[in-house]
Amino acid sequence: FELVRKHGLKIDAEVLFMNLIMHGIDHEGAYESLSELPLYSIDGSGSFKSCWQAYIFTHAWLRHTDNPLNSDLLKNNLDKPFYRDLYHRLAVVNPRMTDRIVVSCCF
Question: Coil, strand, or helix at residue 36?
Answer without folding.
Answer: coil
